[in-house]
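Kindly go through the following sequence and its backbone structure tokens. Advise at your convenience whether the structure tokens fit the sequence:

___
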Amino acid sequence: MRYPFILPLVAVAIVGSTLPGSTQPASTQKPVIAPLNKSRSYIGLKYRDVPQGVDYIGGWVIDLQKNGDFKHAVTHVRDHNGEMLWLDRFINHDRATGKANFQVVDVLKLPLISKAQVFSAHGFCMKNGNRDPDLIAIAKATDTQYRTTIYRAWKANRAKETFEEISTKGITCENPAWGV
């Protein structure tokens, strides 16, 4: 072994401050706290492009007006903790690049889905037959025009700027690849 002194130093660094009789006074020792849900740490982030370490999967505007204006969008991203949706508030357009600037106002950590399930949103979901761009669902993957077995559903509440889990009753999602 080339550096035999490193192992004892690492051991002291890892446990030295918590050993009885250590030189650090007990009042300044910090308890071990479980890490926060890292996905929540994106709330408040202002961005034009997703930050390094975050992969952009897709996104859509949820309140597009006829004149092209909008106030909110949803961005589907992935980081080392998994996939999530960001509920974004539109800030402005960057005149130099033409890109929109957003601020993340809420984060929905998506559960893992099996190969027998699909993620559905982008205005393809309906509640009681009425198309709703704010609906997000995990549905059974079927080769049918409409997916009626919905496992979980959420709604982007633009007024409160939050994602809310909702009942799956009355929700169906159109299969955009059906018949293709």
